[in-house]
Amino acid sequence: MPKYTHESKPHSNANNQVCVLIGHSIEAVTSAVVLASLGQRVHLYANEELLTQQIQQYGFEHHLQALWQLYVQQQDIISYSLPDTADELIKRYEATSHIDTRNIDEQKTVALYWLFLNSIKSAWIGDSWITAFNHSQQQTKPLIMSGIEQLGAIAAFAQRLKRAWVYYVPFVFLKDGDAYSSMLNPSLWLLGEKTAASSQHLGMLQPLMQQARASHHADIATIEFARSSIMAMLATRVSFMNELSRLADSQQVDIQQVSHIMGLDERVGSSYLQAGWGFGGNTLTTELIKLQQSSKKHSLDMFLLQSVVHINEDQKELIFRKFWQYFDGFIDNKTVMIWGGSYKAGSGRTAGSAIHPLLALLWSYNIRTLVYSDKAQAELATLYAQQPLLQLLNSPYQQLHEAQAVFIISWSPQNQLDVAQLNQQAMPIFDAQNALTRTQIDSLVSDYMGIGRAK
């Protein structure tokens, strides 16, 4: 599939038009960069402080950050402080108004509005933005919504908007750590339409639709339900494998081999079958919360989802319990090494990561923690700046000789673990990610405890 870069950026045929994006989330930032890569002019409205924090936090996505800086410099993307009301923002683009275009003299007309609901809900009172858009003179302009809400909420927003071209784009394709490429070449493009078969009004998004490996258009309520169902299924697979891993421990069976065998069955597939400490991040957790809220609203009990959440939370403490049992509870005042802190390899975010409950448990026993976390280093430094038992390291093997155990939380498969250095210290390894291969495990001189697998 062809990839668009700033060297091959398509030339826009509508230089007087802009895509108006509203939000500070990584989805909003990524959309702005991708649209600019496709030759569109972008005006991004956001809380400036939160937007700056978001871009800094995603510094680990070097390609996305570099393109953001380039397009801002070229004024292909212009960011503005979010006005207090949606009405004020819309009036800037009405025919009788003039927008401050920061040294761009020509009047801009709107190609589309794209609202990132999670961002605007914290900025604008209630649903006042719906009233503002209904008073707009530009009712023929497409309006896109993105975000995670209770089932049916976005469809209800669409019905209250007095315009035909209203759409919903869920970011089911976005891969943390590779946001730009995953949006430019989506694995699955879902589009909810208020008016059926109206996607031709989103001409500026056609390249993304065409590049998608799979796509589906339907009414907004159906796409909302599909989005939530997909995410809940992925979470369920993770928790199911983690529950099986505990049984595998008791049967002396390697759960990774079982996962591989299961993946060979095309009815099952191989995705999200890896046992470990569970799932983190914001998306899966938020989806499960919203899905449970929707079920309670309709007086339905979703026992399976409740179990998925419970298993996931309990799994985050499992590796600590293995550590406690290994030392028969005599763990006070030890020093341990922890590799990785992000909620998934390749990310710099720690939301929902097992490192947080692990650190809290270790510190409760006055255990000194040496942490190497590569991309998540900055976030951990901010979160635990006042914690004297935490020391952040620049190398995974730095001060390894001071530790009595090693924990692995998230380790990128691209980084080869040095078993020789581990063997020099011969300390027990508690692998919450199951990062070591069977060959590496067999090469260890020390004890190894994984999730559903042991030496």
Task: Explain briefly what this protein structure is.
By secondary structure, the protein is an alpha/beta fold. The protein has 18 helices and 14 strands.
Can you tell me about this structure?
By secondary structure, the protein is of the alpha/beta class. The protein has helices at 26-37, 48-57, 62-73, 86-91, 117-120, 128-134, 153-160, 179-184, 206-211, 220-251, 255-264, 283-297, 303-315, 318-326, 355-364, 377-383, 419-425, 438-443; strands at 17-22, 42-46, 77-81, 109-116, 143-146, 166-168, 189-193, 215-219, 335-339, 368-372, 390-392, 405-408, 429-431, 448-449. The chain has 18 helices and 14 strands. An 8-stranded mixed β-sheet has the order 3-2-1-4-5-6-7-8, sandwiched between helices. The chain has a 6-stranded parallel β-sheet with strand order 11-10-9-12-13-14, with helices on one face. α9 (206-211) links the parallel β7 and β8.
Q: Quote the distance from N terminus to C terminus.
A: 43 Å
Percentage of residues assigned to helices: 25-40%
Biggest sheet architecture: 8 strands, mixed
As residue ranges, the low-confidence spans are 1-8, 101-106
- How much of the polypeptide forms β-strand, as a percent range? 5-15%
Oligomer: single chain
Strands of the largest sheet, in order across it? 3-2-1-4-5-6-7-8
Radius of gyration from the alpha-carbon trace, in angstroms: 24 Å
Tally of helical runs: 18
**Number of distinct beta strands:** 14
Morphology call = elongated
Report the structural category.
Answer: alpha/beta
Mean of residue pLDDT?
A: 91
